[in-house]
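Appendix C: a fully annotated inverse folding record. The material below is reproduced so that readers can follow the format used throughout the book. The structure is listed first as tokens, followed by the designed sequence.
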């Protein structure tokens, strides 16, 4: 694909994905309140593992040998699978169960800060000063979002928010570790093989909760929410995110995550009845201004990575 066209498509894909992931917070909270963390994780990773394997076999059905990674990369695939799926997703679901949909979206947007820090320490990508400044402006907007909550004391943050903060750091590490893999193998192989390493531990741990659940008594709305959360948001969303990272580069992609809190806030207000002050609305404007600055403020646009 032409690099200029790929860059434009990746921009639209990133914006669309932030809408999907922003809506997903309220849906996930609804699912967790209905069937619990264990049942949801069992369903999510069982379905994603099968989808990944089937799609990989369909794409490489005439050249199955090409679907196998090099032996030297197996350790990196295993590390990415455990970090990105087992630890990150498991922590996110546990943290969201203890927190709220809107608070979860806010805390998880700290991911770009960890990504930029990791990139700077490893020297993986060169960061322009205005990219860093835009990211810090967006982070200031997130701080405004949380200011009223933390004004009452750090204890108000709760265990859930602390778990989500850890999950955010783990996801950033996964993103950096997986970058060489997606450059060599593409998004589909990265997804399928990391699921092969990361999904089984959670499936085994969560199987008792799934067996004890009463899914047959759940309404059709829950099944629709599960389909959105697992197939659209998780499986297709992760494939899209990996491709976007490969085209735009990690440093230019990370600030997009700051768009999720305003979207998640609106959806939480409409569906869960969460309320927001004018301070939070103003903070949303600061967040989006910081994202725009980080995306377009560099003096010399960074060339897209070769996927």
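Designed amino acids, in order:
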């Amino acid at each position: 694909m032409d690099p200029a066209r790929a860059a434009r498509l990746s921009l639209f894909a990133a914006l669309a994905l932030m809408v999907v992931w922003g809506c997903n917070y309220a849906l996930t909270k609804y699912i967790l309140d209905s069937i619990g963390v264990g049942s949801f994780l069992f369903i999510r990773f069982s379905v994603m593992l099968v989808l990944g394997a089937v799609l990989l076999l369909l794409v490489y059905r005439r050249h199955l040998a090409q679907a196998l990674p090099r032996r030297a990369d197996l350790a990196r695939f295993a590390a990415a699978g455990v970090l990105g799926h087992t630890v990150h997703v498991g922590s996110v679901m546990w943290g969201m169960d203890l927190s709220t949909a809107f608070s979860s979206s806010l805390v998880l947007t700290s991911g770009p800060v960890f990504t930029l820090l990791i990139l700077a320490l490893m020297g993986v990508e060169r960061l322009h000063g205005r990219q860093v400044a835009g990211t810090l402006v967006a982070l200031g907007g997130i701080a405004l979002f949380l200011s009223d909550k933390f004004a009452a004391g750090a204890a108000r943050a709760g265990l859930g928010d602390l778990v989500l903060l850890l999950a955010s750091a783990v996801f950033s590490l996964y993103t950096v570790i997986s970058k060489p893999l997606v450059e060599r193998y593409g998004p589909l192989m990265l997804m399928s093989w990391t699921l092969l390493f990361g999904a089984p531990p959670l499936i085994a741990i969560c199987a008792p909760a799934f067996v004890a659940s009463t899914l047959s008594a759940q309404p059709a709305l829950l099944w629709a929410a599960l389909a959105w959360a697992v197939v659209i948001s998780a499986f297709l969303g992760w494939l899209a995110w990996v491709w976007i990272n490969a085209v735009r580069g990690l440093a230019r992609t990370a600030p997009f995550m700051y768009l999720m809190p305003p979207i998640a806030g609106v959806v939480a207000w409409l569906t869960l009845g969460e309320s927001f002050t004018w301070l939070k609305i103003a903070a949303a404007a600061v967040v989006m201004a910081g994202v725009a600055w980080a995306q377009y403020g560099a003096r010399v646009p960074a060339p897209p990575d070769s996927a």
